[in-house]
Amino acid sequence: MEASSSEDLRSTPSRSSSTRLGHTPSPVQSHRQSFTETLRGHPPSPRANRQPSLSQAQLQELLNNPPTTGSADPNFSGRDWQTIGVGELCTSANVRWVEFDAGIEDATNILINSGAHVLLVRHRKDERAAHATYDYRDLTQYLLFATGQLQPDEDHLPIFTSLAKKAQAGQIIPLRDAKSLGNKEPFMTLPATANLTHAIEVFGGGVHRIIIVEEGTDNVVGILSQLRLVKFLWENGRNFPIIDALYSQSIKDLGIGSQLTISVNGDKPLKEALKLMNNEGLTSLAVVDNQSNVVGNISNVDVKLLTKSSSAPLLDNTCIHFISVILSIRGMNDGKDSVPVFHINPYSTLAHTVAKLVATKAH
What we know:
- The protein is an alpha/beta fold.
- The protein is built from twelve helices and nine strands.
- The chain is 31% helix and 11% strand.
- It is globular, with a radius of gyration of 22 Å.
- The relative contact order is 0.20.
- The model is unreliable at 1-18 and 22-54 (pLDDT under 50).
């Protein structure tokens, strides 16, 4: 779902930028035409004429032959999964940092170019303690403010006014100030010795990731995400009989899932979808047609395609058009088309469901 793409952000007076507060670039303003602008005509549905990057045969092979004990980590054999420490699932090698005083454009470039889903924010480069995070949800929220799609509440109005003046003067907007706008996902930490049961309780509260620190300190040793935990239990399920026994049961029997889903019609402007995601705290949003068929989804990560001034018109175009842009750019970068949406039904087994989640890195 995520296609790595580096988009240039600038806030100096000589360059127009969609990230500038209080300024929305004109669609007719002279600038170099981007790839996305060549696709502004009303596109066909992404469901049509698409060949999946993961073929049905490949997916079926994965479902018929789930990971075996040979592929499981022997370090976890014979252990109770509930007592495994969260630090055993993490590595500091995947942690990416940025400082509070970095400009919002520089922080965004680091986020995009690193391929990370989140940056940990610290005061100094020699510091190992994180005090906040910067991710694509933060970028989405900032772009909505910058383009006038969101308005600050009374408490944040002075900060917003100050940032708007800095942007209009071509000054760098520090990440510290940009993080002061809007709502934030809870910043959660756990010591590396905390067990997986504790982590699952935290995830159950709607948190998407947990910062793992050394016992008795604030030094970061890794990041545990929901998907990382799901992948671990899938790959090592044969080591844990109580978990392995669940995989053959249906989603309906396990009582997993919700009848209440949040979606947006494909004919709605993209800006409406981004505001809905922001207001509901979603990382991904289903896009449906007039018959309520799911035709694709929009993720917070996809907002990376909106960071150039030339992409500003996409906000007023339809969601279905943006999905076509996403799939076309992904096909150009990966050399193959992508299937727009994977689905399950209430009678799908847990194994079938988790296999799709892990194979597609969906969330």
